[in-house]
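ok, trying the design again with the full structure, not the truncated one.
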């Protein structure tokens, strides 16, 4: 196994790229207890990156690239450990530190990943706080989507998620998330004639 900082062959790098693909097949286990919905770790991480970008853009004097890197890597260990939800974590230990070390020891850029994750774990920098808030806001968005299709259990999960937020920017976004229907982005103008006469409008555009 090669140590971080040594020259890689492309083999270790390609192994890494295959490994991150496993995250798209690794389910987020919290949905099992929620009773509806499903999401892979990769899907969660992808929207977390978008949320992180938004938070970093709204804040001042923040390294947005670092925030997004933290969001990209924050659940990387779950390719090897799987996702343990809050109930699992009460009774089961997941050695994510070893999982990350075993991975990064093989990569020439492993130290960079380690440094990013260490700063994220410490929660001392503004970037780390924003990245963690992005993680929790993504979960809040997922819960709100379930609330909007009638999951009453999801309603009871919302307050504890909001309480985890640290930055004012994230708290303000959380308030808007709770007030916004998750389908507003495409169905907010429900009286638009498009929803009634779509076929006619399509024909007009084509001909």
């Amino acid at each position: 196994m090669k140590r971080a900082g040594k020259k890689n062959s492309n083999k270790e790098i390609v192994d890494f790229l295959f490994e991150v693909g496993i995250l798209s097949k690794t389910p987020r286990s919290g949905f099992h207890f929620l009773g509806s919905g499903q999401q892979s770790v990769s899907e969660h991480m992808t929207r977390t990156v978008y949320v992180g970008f938004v938070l970093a853009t709204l804040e001042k004097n923040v390294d947005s690239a670092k925030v997004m890197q933290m969001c990209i890597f924050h659940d990387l260990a779950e390719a090897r450990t799987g996702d343990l939800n809050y109930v699992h974590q009460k009774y089961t230990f997941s050695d994510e530190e070893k999982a990350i070390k075993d991975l990064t020891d093989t990569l020439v850029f492993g130290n960079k990943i380690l440094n990013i994750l260490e700063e994220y774990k410490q929660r001392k920098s503004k970037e780390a706080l924003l990245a963690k808030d992005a993680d929790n806001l993504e979960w809040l968005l997922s819960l709100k989507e379930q609330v909007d299709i009638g999951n009453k259990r999801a309603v009871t999960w919302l307050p504890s998620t909001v309480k985890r937020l640290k930055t004012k920017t994230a708290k303000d976004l959380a308030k808007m998330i709770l007030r916004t229907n998750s389908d507003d982005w495409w169905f907010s103008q429900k009286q638009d004639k498009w929803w009634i006469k779509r076929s006619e409008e399509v024909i007009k555009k084509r001909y």
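Keeping the full-length input from now on. The longest helix spans residues 126-147.
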